[in-house]
Design brief:
It is built from 10 helices and no strands. It has about 180 residues and is mainly alpha-helical.
């Protein structure tokens, strides 16, 4: 039971600590507002230990969306985006109402430069709700990569409405306005 608590805590308290090389420099990864950052960086050894725990738990019950989601998060932090996408897609198939699953899959797809698919997942996350500035910011970022500056500006505006101190969205908005 301790392992389950520790593993489920992983997905809720450590999502997106900036370990992803594909977004780290640009600051594009934004934690979802329901996920807490403890401002620590997980070591590769720690992540591999959690991966072993998740694998063991999934051997006993391979249809637990929370464990699949946690393992997907671990794969994401290990930069194994293909495996993260596989696991989070299975979690979504089991429980399609979890906004954070779509958010993680979008980020994983974005790391693979599948920006249109990432936008689709973020749109689904927005449909599920509740509204979060981090999700609108992320979608604005992916729209800007596709040079759809009007859509990027609309999402950046929405992110700023939700969080007026969202300086990343302000920068995206300025970029979108300048590029139009």
């Amino acid at each position: 039971m301790k392992a389950l608590v520790a593993l489920s805590t992983l997905i809720t308290c450590s999502l997106l600590l900036g370990l992803s090389a594909c977004f780290a420099e640009s600051g594009a990864i934004r934690p979802s507002s329901t996920m807490k950052s403890n401002n620590s960086v997980h070591t590769k050894a720690w992540l591999q230990e959690k991966l072993l725990q998740a694998n063991s738990m999934l051997e006993k019950n391979n249809s637990d969306s929370k464990i699949l989601g946690a393992r997907a998060q671990i794969y994401f932090e290990l930069k194994d985006y293909d495996k993260a996408i596989v696991d989070i897609s299975k979690a979504i198939a089991l429980d399609s109402k979890v906004q954070d699953y779509y958010y993680l899959r979008a980020l994983s797809k974005g790391c693979k430069k599948q920006n249109k698919d990432a936008i689709s997942d973020l749109s689904r996350a927005i449909e599920i709700g509740p509204a979060r500035s981090s999700i609108h910011y992320q979608r604005a970022y992916f729209y800007s990569l596709l040079k759809d500056y009007s859509a990027s500006a609309a999402d950046a505006h929405k992110a700023l409405q939700l969080d007026p101190k969202d300086y990343g969205s302000l920068v995206l908005l300025g970029s979108a306005d300048f590029s139009q």
